[in-house]
Amino acid sequence: MKPFQILPLCLLALAACSDPEKIARYPIDPPTAEKAVPNRLGRAELREVSMPQYATAQEIAFQTADGALRSNPDNLWADDPARAFTLSLARQISALSGATVISEPWPLADPPARRVEVRIEQMLPGADGQLHVAGVYFVTPAGYEGGRDVVRRFDFTVPIADQEPGTIAKAQSAAVTVLARRIAQLD
Question: What is the CB neighbour count within 10 angstroms for residue 32?
Answer without folding.
Answer: 12
